[in-house]
């Protein structure tokens, strides 16, 4: 903060924070932001990715512009079509080879194959090989679940939200043909697997679609940290929301789009989600990003 002030910036945007909101006099970000604010510098910080529980917002000092994350009206549909003809909305960034393209393939639930959350090394290849696997979200990274299915010989994955995540969908650059569905759709797919003698499914990838996303947009993202303000309840936090779900962003060539070491792909841009803020204004001469 001190260096940014010395450099003469007009705005400081900081997308880091503590895991909880400490008292202001022991919060290094609040202290640094106060010094910057005294110089007339706008300080914007992320509220955090610990929602949707109450009192999860961080960077909540009164002199900080605290940002939450919201959805946008851009989507990456990858719908699940079951053997009974029902269609269940999903999203995915996968664009590689091996997509089912309408072909119905055997479908299994990972809970019956060794690991409900598709932990790496826990899935039984004898039950997974050549099939699409339904995995439950949580426990490990979303894209890691697909890598686990691939390692066990599976050829596709459906990742279903639990009740904790609800029906909000995040598009990921999966390693295999895969999609994410909401909690409601996940329950329907599990019920189909339980009732069908030989359950089958396919995934229909539709690329980028504008106007079919969350409507009306914006809507607060489920992962976006919430108030009330833990330290000063009478001051509402977060202050505002900004686009933070499925955002097109520059990506380093030092890491794969899935961020997995086994992923050889390299891209210039990626779709990411989180509490980040970008400010564009002609009056800003210098801008510091942390």
TrEMBL record:
UniProt cross-references to Gene3D superfamilies, sorted A to Z: 3.50.30.30, Peptidase S8/S53 domain
Keyword Cell membrane in annotation: no
Gene Ontology biological process: proteolysis; response to symbiotic fungus
Domain Peptidase S8/S53: from-to ranges: 3-254
PROSITE patterns: SUBTILASE
Location in or out of the cell: Secreted, Extracellular space, Apoplast
Domain PA stretches: 106-189
Predominant place of localization: secreted
Gene Ontology CC annotation, any one: apoplast
Presence of keyword Protease: yes
Alphabetic keyword roster: Apoplast, Glycoprotein, Hydrolase, Protease, Serine protease, Signal
Pfam families noted in UniProt: PA, Peptidase_S8
CDD domains per UniProt: PA_subtilisin_like
GO molecular function: serine-type endopeptidase activity
Main function: Required for arbuscular mycorrhiza (AM) development during AM symbiosis with AM fungi (e.g. Glomeromycota intraradices).
Family according to the record: Belongs to the peptidase S8 family.
Protein name (database record): Subtilisin-like protease
């Amino acid at each position: 903060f001190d260096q940014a002030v010395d450099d003469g910036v007009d705005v400081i945007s900081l997308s880091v924070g503590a895991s909880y909101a400490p008292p202001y006099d022991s919060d290094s970000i609040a202290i640094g932001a106060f010094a910057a604010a005294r110089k007339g510098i706008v300080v914007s910080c992320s509220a955090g990715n610990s929602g949707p529980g109450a009192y999860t917002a961080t960077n909540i000092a009164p002199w900080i512009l605290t940002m939450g994350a919201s959805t946008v009206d851009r989507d990456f549909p990858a719908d699940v079509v079951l053997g009974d003809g029902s269609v269940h909305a999903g999203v995915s960034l996968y664009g590689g080879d091996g997509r089912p393209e309408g072909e119905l393939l055997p479908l299994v639930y990972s809970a019956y194959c060794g690991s409900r959350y598709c932990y790496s090394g826990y899935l039984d290849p004898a039950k997974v090989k050549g099939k699409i696997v339904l995995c439950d979200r949580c426990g490990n990274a979303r894209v890691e679940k697909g890598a686990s299915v691939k390692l066990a010989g599976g050829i596709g994955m459906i990742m279903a939200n639990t009740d904790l995540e609800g029906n909000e969908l995040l598009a990921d650059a999966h390693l295999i043909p895969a999609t994410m569905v909401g909690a409601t759709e996940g329950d329907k797919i599990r019920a189909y697997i339980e009732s069908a003698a030989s359950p089958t499914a396919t995934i229909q990838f539709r690329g980028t679609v504008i106007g079919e996303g969350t409507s009306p947009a914006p809507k607060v993202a489920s992962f976006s940290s919430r108030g009330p303000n833990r330290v000063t309840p009478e001051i509402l936090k977060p202050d505002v929301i900004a686009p933070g779900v499925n955002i097109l962003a520059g990506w380093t060539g030092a890491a794969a789009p899935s961020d997995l070491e086994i992923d050889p792909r390299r891209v210039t841009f990626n779709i990411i989600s989180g509490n980040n803020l970008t400010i564009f204004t002609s009056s800003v001469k210098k801008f510091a990003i942390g």
